[in-house]
Amino acid sequence: MPLEIAIVPAGQWGTALAVPLTANGHRVRLWFRRPEEAAHFRRTRETRRLPGIRFGDGVTGTERLEEAVAGADLVVLAPASQGLRQVARAIRPLLRPGAILVSASKGLEEETLLRMSEVLAQEIPEAADRVAVISGPNFAVEVARGLPTGTVVAARDPKLAETVQDTFLTPRFRAYTSDDPIGVELGGALKNVIAMAVGVSDGLGLGHNTRATLITRGLAEMARLGMALGAQLMTFAGLSGVGDLVLTATGDLSRNRQAGLYIGRGGTLADFIRETGATVEGAPTARAARELAARLGVEMPITEQLCRILYDGTAPEEALLALTGREKRTRELEGHHPPAGR
């Protein structure tokens, strides 16, 4: 049956998700932070974040949060990761009892080191058992254009995951389910860190071999941290792991890759953000991941070197070449066996 769905806020990624949702006959309400953006949408049926994509009558836009959220059966939360807590606090008193929450944000909260579903559980505890996450190799522009893609919906409750899967699933937006929200969320968050490092390498002109090595070893450290936090190893071999990592590290639409390229060519992250206005999720996530790794005793050398570039003033080439000069290892896959009993 058609659902009433709120997308909060109507950024590029959140708005793109309205395409598969309306293809399934659901009614979607977009919440715009600025009244002028809502007015532009009502006038043109387009958003400034996705020019050229026209939405039908099944999508409405408003600058009033209450109008977007009240009575919604399902709320898609898609702010930048560092802003999710504030958005969660704002929607809590507006939620219909029993509403499903879907986190589409990819990152770790820098101050608390929490995953996005953990932030939602803290801020909206009464809905903690109704939180699902969606993540995969999905550039927003391509989803909005209806190009074929795959993604993963994860929740501890298989029935919840399947309900959300059915809500999004179309012939062009293939959604799979997972019972490993930890792994799915960490894959979506940490791939931005590795993609930035790959961008730095490409900006320095270090070649295709280095790129492939960084992607592969980056996946290894993503999995190490994930397993230390209770994720399933095989999750990182799927769409929300290696799939999203390859896309973000090599695709020209990736803001994290573009930021890395800019830095590798001699620029700074601050200048990149100022010039493009882009949100670069890999930067705060790198610092959070480095802290998490230190607490858990997990080795994340690529993440560590990216942090040195971003926050410690280390020259990009010096940081990346330090990776190949590390102490030798006898086994490539040492430390990646699943815990006993899993």
Name some characteristics of this structure.
342 residues, alpha/beta, Rossmann fold, N-(1-d-carboxylethyl)-l-norvaline Dehydrogenase, domain 2, 16 helices, 11% strand
Overview of this structure, please?
The protein is of the alpha/beta class and 342 residues long. Helix content is 49%, strand content 11%. It has 2 domains: 4-179, NAD(P)-binding Rossmann-like Domain (Rossmann fold); 189-324, N-(1-d-carboxylethyl)-l-norvaline Dehydrogenase, domain 2 (Orthogonal Bundle), CATH 1.10.1040.10. The chain is built from 16 helices and 8 strands. The protein has an 8-stranded mixed β-sheet with strand order 3-2-1-4-5-6-7-8, sandwiched between helices. The chain starts with a strand and ends in an 18-residue tail after the last helix. 51% of the residues are buried.
List the SSEs and their pairings:
Blueprint: E1 4-8, H1 12-16, H2 18-23, E2 27-31, H3 35-44, E3 59-62, H4 65-69, E4 74-77, H5 84-91, E5 100-103, H6 116-123, E6 131-135, H7 140-144, E7 149-154, H8 158-168, E8 173-178, H9 181-204, H10 208-228, H11 239-250, H12 255-264, H13 269-276, H14 282-296, H15 301-311, H16 316-324
Parallel strand pairs: 1-2, 1-4, 2-3, 4-5, 5-6, 7-8
Antiparallel strand pairs: 6-7
Helix pairs in contact: 5-6, 9-10, 9-11, 9-12, 9-14, 9-15, 14-15, 15-16
